[in-house]
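Journal club prep — side note

Before the paper discussion, L.F. wants everyone to see what a predicted structure for a comparable chain looks like in token form. Sequence:
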Amino acid sequence: MNLAELQELHSLPFFDLLKRAREVHEKFWPEGKIQLCTLLSIKTGGCSEDCAYCAQSARYKTELESHVLLEREEVMQHARAAKDSGSTRFCMGAAWKGVRGGTPKFEQVLDIVRDVSTLGMEVCVTLGELGPAEAEQLRMAGVTAYNHNLDTSPEHYPNIVTSHTYEDRLRTIRNVQDAGISVCCGGILGLSETITDRLRLLEVISNFNPQPESVPINSLMPMPGTPLAENPQVDPFDLVRMIACARISVPGAKVRLSAGRTRLSDEVQALCFYAGANSIFYGEKLLTADNPEAEKDLALLAKLGLKTLQPDRSIEAPAIDSSMPACPAPDGHHSNETKSCSPAGCC
């Protein structure tokens, strides 16, 4: 979808927008099930990046306790517990700028992935920037999805991150898709962005070819010591609108209700599910932010009559849609030059 279409959609009366989103959701996800995901920080803090929202950056004075890359058996204990509690996707995040093949830390991650993949869950990692060779090695080790969020619009991004560019992130997404790994790519609300910034984010994501397999919608959890520590809470109705717009613009993706759920009432979460959210991070911690307890999540899903998805280890980057136009570059203009397009197969 283009920006004008998204703006028209977003400006609909609230219940008209929800009706549109619900129709799309029921068409593409008729079973109405929810995916349960568990996220584990396997390496916390000490990151060289300057993301203004992140307590893991070494550039800010926060109360976060850093730890080095976890040993394989400790990760496996968490993964087994996640499976036992009902999670079907196990996501592992490491706070660093990126990884390079042949380094000890990357080899350690590959070993961890190989072991976790034996449990039968979907395996997702978020490790920062990746080259083509590293993406291929992760796929061979058993990674089924790679998370690499764009956070916000191309225009607002330099106000939030200066240690890498939007093009850097798009390049990693292209490398992941070229390797046959499905992409998990979304953003964060509450970064002092405008409504237009939010919709530009969706414009970029919806024009990936192929589109992402999942789209996490996060609400900023302001972290003491970070530049955005005093940012106000995202309005719950704005969140529901963004969930609905994501569902309509990326209809085949799982739309994940992610960070910020601790601030949402059961009623608001129910609205998000109705608007098209069909995936949640499940458990006590979401990297460095609190997350609703598993029992509370299960009770809410039971109250709403929502069942959960089973793991799908066969997922991979969807096939390129030859009917789609070339993808937009970050400036919003289309290009027929392959070098200007970042997601795989855009041109």
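L.F.'s comment for the group: The chain has one domain: 3-303. Keep this in mind when we get to the figures.
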